[in-house]
Amino acid sequence: MILHSPASDPMDGPITDHSLRPTAFVGAGLPLAEFESELIHERTMAGLQAVRARGRTGGRKFALNKAQVRLAQAAMANRDTSVAVFCKEPGIRPVTLYRYVDPNGNLGDYGKRVLGTP
Protein backbone atom coordinates (compact mmCIF):
# COMPACT_ATOMS: atom_id res chain seq x y z
CA MET A 1 0.00 0.00 0.00
CA ILE A 2 1.38 3.41 -0.97
CA LEU A 3 0.52 6.42 1.17
CA HIS A 4 0.37 9.98 -0.11
CA SER A 5 1.11 13.03 1.91
CA PRO A 6 -1.83 15.43 2.29
CA ALA A 7 0.01 18.16 0.39
CA SER A 8 0.78 16.03 -2.67
CA ASP A 9 -1.64 15.43 -5.49
CA PRO A 10 -2.79 11.78 -5.58
CA MET A 11 -2.58 11.84 -9.37
CA ASP A 12 1.16 12.56 -9.27
CA GLY A 13 1.98 9.28 -7.54
CA PRO A 14 1.60 5.74 -8.73
CA ILE A 15 -1.87 4.30 -9.03
CA THR A 16 -2.42 1.12 -7.06
CA ASP A 17 -5.44 -1.01 -6.41
CA HIS A 18 -5.63 0.56 -2.93
CA SER A 19 -5.62 4.16 -4.08
CA LEU A 20 -8.89 3.88 -6.02
CA ARG A 21 -11.92 2.56 -4.18
CA PRO A 22 -14.74 1.97 -6.67
CA THR A 23 -16.20 -0.63 -4.35
CA ALA A 24 -16.87 2.10 -1.80
CA PHE A 25 -19.15 3.88 -4.28
CA VAL A 26 -20.92 0.68 -5.24
CA GLY A 27 -21.22 -0.40 -1.62
CA ALA A 28 -22.72 2.94 -0.62
CA GLY A 29 -25.35 2.74 -3.37
CA LEU A 30 -26.50 -0.81 -2.72
CA PRO A 31 -28.71 -0.08 0.30
CA LEU A 32 -30.38 2.75 -1.59
CA ALA A 33 -31.01 0.54 -4.63
CA GLU A 34 -32.37 -2.24 -2.43
CA PHE A 35 -34.69 0.21 -0.65
CA GLU A 36 -35.93 1.55 -3.98
CA SER A 37 -36.56 -1.97 -5.27
CA GLU A 38 -38.56 -2.87 -2.15
CA LEU A 39 -40.56 0.35 -2.45
CA ILE A 40 -41.44 -0.37 -6.09
CA HIS A 41 -42.46 -3.92 -5.14
CA GLU A 42 -44.69 -2.71 -2.29
CA ARG A 43 -46.39 -0.11 -4.49
CA THR A 44 -46.95 -2.63 -7.28
CA MET A 45 -48.51 -5.16 -4.91
CA ALA A 46 -50.73 -2.46 -3.34
CA GLY A 47 -51.88 -1.39 -6.81
CA LEU A 48 -52.70 -4.96 -7.82
CA GLN A 49 -54.70 -5.48 -4.62
CA ALA A 50 -56.65 -2.28 -5.27
CA VAL A 51 -57.44 -3.36 -8.83
CA ARG A 52 -58.56 -6.83 -7.70
CA ALA A 53 -60.77 -5.23 -5.05
CA ARG A 54 -62.57 -3.41 -7.87
CA GLY A 55 -63.17 -6.75 -9.59
CA ARG A 56 -60.59 -6.40 -12.32
CA THR A 57 -58.06 -9.06 -13.25
CA GLY A 58 -55.02 -8.75 -15.44
CA GLY A 59 -53.83 -10.85 -18.31
CA ARG A 60 -54.77 -11.61 -21.84
CA LYS A 61 -58.36 -12.40 -22.74
CA PHE A 62 -59.22 -15.98 -23.63
CA ALA A 63 -59.46 -16.85 -27.32
CA LEU A 64 -62.67 -18.87 -26.80
CA ASN A 65 -65.77 -18.01 -24.79
CA LYS A 66 -67.91 -20.49 -22.82
CA ALA A 67 -70.15 -21.38 -25.74
CA GLN A 68 -67.18 -21.98 -28.03
CA VAL A 69 -65.49 -24.21 -25.44
CA ARG A 70 -68.65 -26.32 -25.11
CA LEU A 71 -68.90 -26.52 -28.92
CA ALA A 72 -65.23 -27.54 -29.11
CA GLN A 73 -65.83 -30.25 -26.51
CA ALA A 74 -68.68 -31.73 -28.53
CA ALA A 75 -66.79 -31.43 -31.81
CA MET A 76 -63.62 -33.04 -30.47
CA ALA A 77 -65.58 -35.91 -28.94
CA ASN A 78 -66.81 -36.68 -32.48
CA ARG A 79 -64.02 -38.49 -34.36
CA ASP A 80 -65.25 -37.16 -37.73
CA THR A 81 -64.37 -33.57 -36.84
CA SER A 82 -61.53 -31.96 -38.77
CA VAL A 83 -59.48 -29.83 -36.40
CA ALA A 84 -58.30 -27.52 -39.19
CA VAL A 85 -61.85 -26.89 -40.38
CA PHE A 86 -63.15 -26.38 -36.85
CA CYS A 87 -60.40 -23.87 -36.05
CA LYS A 88 -61.27 -21.64 -39.02
CA GLU A 89 -64.63 -20.57 -37.54
CA PRO A 90 -63.32 -19.00 -34.31
CA GLY A 91 -60.11 -17.97 -36.06
CA ILE A 92 -57.70 -19.92 -33.86
CA ARG A 93 -54.83 -22.30 -34.50
CA PRO A 94 -54.97 -25.99 -33.57
CA VAL A 95 -52.44 -25.48 -30.76
CA THR A 96 -54.83 -22.98 -29.18
CA LEU A 97 -57.73 -25.41 -29.48
CA TYR A 98 -55.73 -28.11 -27.71
CA ARG A 99 -55.12 -25.75 -24.78
CA TYR A 100 -58.86 -25.70 -24.21
CA VAL A 101 -59.90 -29.22 -25.21
CA ASP A 102 -57.88 -32.40 -25.71
CA PRO A 103 -58.40 -34.70 -28.75
CA ASN A 104 -60.97 -36.77 -26.83
CA GLY A 105 -63.15 -33.78 -25.91
CA ASN A 106 -61.95 -33.46 -22.30
CA LEU A 107 -61.37 -29.98 -20.91
CA GLY A 108 -57.83 -28.69 -20.78
CA ASP A 109 -56.47 -26.09 -18.35
CA TYR A 110 -57.70 -23.11 -20.38
CA GLY A 111 -61.12 -24.70 -20.90
CA LYS A 112 -61.52 -25.27 -17.17
CA ARG A 113 -60.59 -21.66 -16.45
CA VAL A 114 -63.07 -20.31 -19.02
CA LEU A 115 -65.90 -22.45 -17.70
CA GLY A 116 -64.92 -21.86 -14.09
CA THR A 117 -64.64 -25.54 -13.23
CA PRO A 118 -61.94 -26.82 -10.89
Description of the structure:
By secondary structure, the protein is mainly alpha-helical. The protein has two domains: 21-59; 66-115, no CATH class. 54% of the residues lie in helices and 0% in strands. The protein has five helices and no strands. It has helices at 22-53, 66-77, 83-88, 94-100, 109-115. It starts with 21 loop residues before the first helix and ends with a helix.
Q: What would the average pLDDT be, to the nearest integer?
A: 84
Most strands sheet: none
Relative helix content: 40-55%
Low-confidence stretches: none
- How many individual β-strands? 0
Summarize the structure.
This protein has two domains: 21-59; 66-115, no CATH class. It has helices at residues 22-53, 66-77, 83-88, 94-100, 109-115. The protein is an all-alpha fold.
Short descriptors:
118 residues; mainly alpha
Q: What is this structure's SSE topology?
A:
Elements: H1 22-53, H2 66-77, H3 83-88, H4 94-100, H5 109-115
